[in-house]
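HUMAN: I'm a chemist; might I ask for a sequence paired with its structure tokens?

ASSISTANT:
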Amino acid sequence: MTSRLVRIVLLAVAAAASGGISAATIRDVTMEHDGTRYRLTSSTYVDAPREAVFRVLTDYERFDRISSVYAESRFLPPDSDGTTLVYTRLEGCVLFFCKSVERVERMETEEPAFIRTTADPARSDFRYARSEWHLEPESLGTNVIYEMELEPDFWVPPIIGPWMIKRRLLSGGVDAVARIEGLAQQLVVVGQSSATP
């Protein structure tokens, strides 16, 4: 077999494996709501090296692969101080409430261990939004500690709104973790886990 054919076969096996049983394990999730601000903290084991996980989480040109809620994502020209800027447009519905929201965020990284994004409120549909990913090597995989805090700058239905947002964040997280793991495993198979996106 040629090396190209071997890579294709291995990639197909990895894709099939990632679509089936996932070793990704969400160990702990905490969701808090205080007024108009939401905080989510989670700890998850992902069966892939942190270099590959880092690459998936910083690939904003293809962020929609992580979750279908990302309708659009891309890198923008760097901020005036040279910091990476990213754009995302998220779409989703919970019950009868549907919304499309935009974020422009500064992305700071320490490859391959840390990612932080902070929204620019003047260019986002959030008064405040910050997320941090801490990637710690564990066994043959990665312990992913995720912290997110956000305050929407749009109307949220008062009685069921907080419940809807919590439900969407928690349920979407399970699928996203499995996809992150599968994408990271595919990068390892094709030998791209340490390359920059």
Notes: The chain has three helices and eight strands.
